[in-house]
């Protein structure tokens, strides 16, 4: 996976808006000017930023979810990683949209940021997705919190590679967990322009929910398999899969890709302390692209790569997922 060429740094961003969307997600819009605007204008879908929340307080008691009341009180010293859901570059000004879920002390503190506040950001970080070469079809698979970088990719693929048809498979617990504004109405199980945020990009979507409240009732990977089985005259060599979501979902997508001979890039998540390759806290076990030593062809030896620097996007063939250990 090639590395992005952008110049990363520490930048101050201004919060433009920060509000809850649906049951799970919050959306924060950030504005960068000066050097930050230049650095983030050069970003690549799949890259991420690290945000400092160490000076943020907690929201009022009635806005703290009961299950976080004890855990949220601990100080948050380390920055936290979040993907870009969208980036828009204009002369002298770059805006970035984050979509984040409240899981613990840091993400809860993020909800206290309001329009006009300043935030310290390190980025853009990581390698990002590689654009497809010689492909006709890109299948994007997102599960739960993995939606933001996939949404970002869905915006950039049709612009950078207009010859590639893009279809997104979006999995969520329920329709209320999808971070889309406005009434989505009844979303059928088919592939179609059912999510306006994707439709306006020319990207059709298949939705799968755990509770059947929208789209296909079941796992997004089952929906993907069913769709692949239905295709006639379709070329695996001309297709690429991109995925971000919980690790079991990524393992399933990697398996589907491997069985069918489809190239596949997965965006991995790890707990990250530094985000810039110093602390080694974000190791991802991988198979080496070439034997580590002469005469070791066919060996099961593995190497550890850093999710923050070598990733977060990896060739799915190289990742040793937990279930394969
Ligand atoms: C490259 C990268 C990109 C990311 N992009 C996004 C994004 O766009 N939107 C978003 O909402 N989150 C994203 N995350 C996850 C986000 O960084 C964590 O949710 C956040 O750090 C949690 O911090 P916290 O202090 O609120 O909770 P913590 O106290 O750190 O964690 C609270 C609970 O959530 C669990 N948890 C923490 N991280 C994850 C995770 N990645 N997946 C599942 N469970 C987790 C912990 O095990 C713990 O049980 C990304 C992570 C990485 C590595
Ligand atoms: S987070 Fe420190 S090395 Fe990756």
Description:
The chain is of the alpha/beta class and about 325 residues long. The protein has helices spanning about 35-40, 105-110, 145-160, 195-200, 220-230, 245-260; strands spanning about 10-20, 25-35, 50, 80-85, 85-90, 95-100, 120-125, 135-145, 165-170, 205-210, 215, 240-245, 265, 285, 305, 315. The model is unreliable at about 1-5 (pLDDT under 50). FE2/S2 (inorganic) cluster (FES) binds next to loops.
Distinct compounds present: flavin-adenine dinucleotide, FE2/S2 (inorganic) cluster
- Please report which band the strand proportion falls in: under 5%, 5-15%, 15-25%, 25-35%, 35-45% or over 45%: 25-35%
How far the N terminus sits from the C terminus, by CA atoms, comes to 23 Å
Structural class: alpha/beta
The pLDDT mean sits at: 92
Name of the CATH architecture of the largest domain: 3-Layer(aba) Sandwich
Shape: globular
Number of helices: 6
Question: What is the number of E strands?
Answer: 16
Enter the CATH topology name of the largest domain.
Answer: Rossmann fold
CATH class of the largest domain: Alpha Beta
Q: What's the helix-strand series? A: EEHEEEEHEEHEHEEHEHEEEE
Question: Order of strands across the widest beta sheet?
Answer: 4-3-7-1-2-6-5
Whole-number count of domains:
2
Portion in helices: 10-25%
Uncertain spans: 1-5
Q: Roughly how many Å is the radius of gyration?
A: 20 Å
- The CATH homologous superfamily of the largest domain is termed Nucleotide-binding domain of ferredoxin-NADP reductase (FNR) module
Most strands sheet: 7 strands, antiparallel
